[in-house]
Amino acid sequence: MTLRKLVTGFIIATALGTLCLSVDARPNERQAIMEDDGIVQLTEKSTAPSTVPTGLRPGYNLTPMPNTRPVPAGDKLPQMTASSAIVIEAKTGHVLYERDADKRMYPASTTKMMTLITALESNKLDEIVTVSERASGADGSTLWLEIGEKIPLGELLSGMIMTSGNDAAIAIAEHVDGTVPEFAAHMTRRAQELGATGTNFVNANGMPDENHYTTAHDLARMAAYGYTLDHFADIVSAKDGYYSWVHDPTHYLRSENQMLWLYEGGNGVKTGYTDAAGRCLVSAANRNGVQLIAVVLDSLYIWNDSIALLDYGFSNVENEAIVRADETAATLPIVSGRKKSMKVKTVDELIMPTFKDDETAYNLEYDLPSYLKAPIKKGDAVGRVHVLCDGKEVAQTEVVATADVEQKSFFKMLINFLRLNDFF
Prior knowledge:
single chain; alpha+beta; Beta-lactamase; Peptidoglycan synthesis regulatory factor (PBP3), Domain 2; six-stranded mixed beta sheet
């Protein structure tokens, strides 16, 4: 292990110590979160609820912190300290609150969320990543990877997200696209395809560069898309894990994202910090089927700000059944069958968020044939119902036949044809 790595590790460990001190780091137990400025504190013996209505888990107390920064006129969350922030509902992308959410900002290590998405879309988790000299020599936060180590991609992605390993991000980038610049261009291209048009990446880990930037809204879009991918939610919501390649004798990693412990339903996503970016956090929570994404960039108190955003979001959204299961979608005529018509019904209940601050209009599009042709089996898929929000499809379900219908015999069909055409 190089002297530079030892010095870097000492500096990072010292800095993190001023941000978060865990008095009990054993996995699968409640974690004590202590902030040097008193943001959040867990008292093991205390069952008193927070003085502020909040989604904090039982046992945690929220200490309101003064906002020393200017606040835009009419801002609904004046106590929030972030320069740029947003909270959205993930399924629809509906914005529940924003503050300068389209302002160009530095993302720091929240970049690694798009590194994860790009890798998940491009490669399989059981592929083996070989650590290069470039990756092993990465600056900043690190997993202390050694040259030539071979690690499954899925495990390296988990380590990168949990402890913000810059070395892991470089190794992943090189594995997926050969070089970091090629991977960064891949990330940028994919992010912009997802609607994150205010984003440009030049590296995979978020190290400072004036041409490496994004917006709070873009990060929220990326995160919302991430939750549609296999494995994304599992990786970004993992609190800890044991890995044989971790050089610490315990082989143990613990997530830096304290919201996984603090907030009810917390299930992601990624922390970040550089001098240029300030404190950053993309956080997420799912409660009663509602998935929210919150982003704070250049925040004085990332935990307080993120809790305020999520609390505000959950207080302004609720679920409603837009389509019910086993609901009649249409009655369709049947050609050449022993029945003249049949009701066709939906399979799934489609529950969608509705918002107190906006009367969201959901439109239903029925993709159904003009008639059915026998023979038909009960349960046969005959079409679909699509739910649209602002012209974008946000959900769908199959429409199926509700009964068996036999085909008429050729002789009977001929008789009917002759009768209809006045041959009798």
